[in-house]
Write a structure and sequence with these properties.
about 350 residues; alpha/beta; Isopropylmalate Dehydrogenase; 2 domains; ten-stranded mixed beta sheet; two-stranded antiparallel ribbon; about 20% strand; globular; binds 3-isopropylmalic acid; binds manganese (II) ion
Length: about 350
């Protein structure tokens, strides 16, 4: 008997609902049965009634087989929502609350991009580092004000992320894992990350282990991206590096991401890396390829490996001009080649 998966869909703002809608269509066409429940969350919802995400809704989300997210955020220049409201209150609340401790972002350099022909992935720790929110302010607004923002790195948190990265690297085309950090300056956290990588490495004799400082990694990603197979790094370095990786691979319009709880104590969340692009809403101009790629990662996580490979293959094989085809044309092309 085939299984029906219960998926929570947070279309969100701007083009978010258009790209999640497209991704769902492709998933269903790949033969996977989905029962989707939509959650109205994001900037528009907040502006309407002040709701971001409460604990009860978070607990509901935990129980789904997976969560699909389009994009959240107001239009550029709309300053009605204080910074951090949606980032901390919605996105990070889900990452922390559902213990989505890995942010897995695969990249494939499309023709014409700096990374053309390269395939690599970033495994970003997703619940610690500077994102943990350690720190505070004192005497705010006075000449003597203080602001501290610490970086939390636990043995437990680093090790589980590094283990996930080694498992990915072992089955990658090139079995190589590169730790990216700044061990020459961030000596406390860097030492912990290096030791953990070196320890876990003894269990993966087939994986070549490498280390780059984060500033050097920025140069290599642009000039020599074929050096990378799987990168493992902390939350903030991973955030920054994955935007750069997206840019050299053809733009974040193509970049997929999976916020994963590999232990499955909460639903994992799948989202394109791009934003809400309010300027092109409802014009059939949204490019759903990143959302479809994210859906392929979701299928992989659900254990629908064959469907995942097929969806991934049609995205990979897509070689038309997305601008010419528009959203519906892209979906039609994908469906025809499934
Ligand atoms: C990302 C985003 C988020 C992050 C923001 C929106 C909080 O930039 O998913 O990369 O910093 O992680
Ligand atoms: Mn980011």
């Amino acid at each position: 008997m085939t299984q029906t998966y219960r998926i929570a869909v947070i279309g969100g703002d701007g083009i978010g609902p258009e790209v999640t809608g497209a991704a769902l269509e492709v998933v269903r066409a790949a033969g996977v049965a989905i029962e989707d429940t939509s959650y109205d969350l994001g900037a528009a919802r907040f502006l309407r009634d002040g709701f971001v995400l409460d604990d009860a809704t978070l607990e509901e989300l935990r129980g789904f087989d997976a969560i699909m997210l389009g994009a959240v955020g107001p239009a550029i220049g709309d300053t009605r929502i204080p910074g951090g409201t949606l980032e901390r209150g919605l996105l990070l609340k889900m990452r922390f609350g559902l213990d989505l401790y890995v942010n897995y972002r695969p990249f494939r350099g499309v023709p014409g991009s700096l990374a053309e022909g390269c395939e690599f992935a970033i495994v970003r720790e997703n619940t610690e580092g500077p994102y943990a929110g350690e720190g505070g302010q004192l005497r705010r607004g006075t000449p003597h004000e203080i602001a501290t923002q610490g970086s939390v790195n636990t043995r437990f948190g680093v090790e589980r992320c590094v283990r996930y990265a080694f498992a990915r690297a072992e089955s990658a085309r090139v079995p190589r894992l590169t730790l990216v950090h700044k061990t020459n300056v961030l000596t406390f956290a860097g030492d912990l990350w290096s030791r953990v990588v070196n320890e876990v490495a003894t269990e993966y004799p087939n994986v070549e282990v490498d280390y780059h400082h984060v500033d050097a990694a920025c140069i290599y990603l642009v000039e020599n991206p074929q050096r990378y197979s799987v990168i493992v790094t902390d939350n903030l370095f991973g955030d920054i590096l994955s935007d750069l990786a997206g840019a050299v691979s053809g733009g974040i319009g193509y970049a997929a991401s999976a916020n994963l709880n590999p232990d499955r104590t909460g639903a994992s969340l799948f989202e394109p890396v791009h934003g809400a692009a309010h300027d092109i809403v409802g014009q059939n101009r949204a490019n759903p390829l990143a959302a479809v790629s994210s859906a392929a990662l979701m299928l992989e996580h659900l254990g629908e490996i064959e469907a995942a490979r097929r969806v991934e293959a049609v995205v990979r094989g897509f070689n038309a001009d997305p601008v010419v085809l528009g959203t519906s044309g892209i979906v039609k092309t994908l469906l025809e080649s499934l």
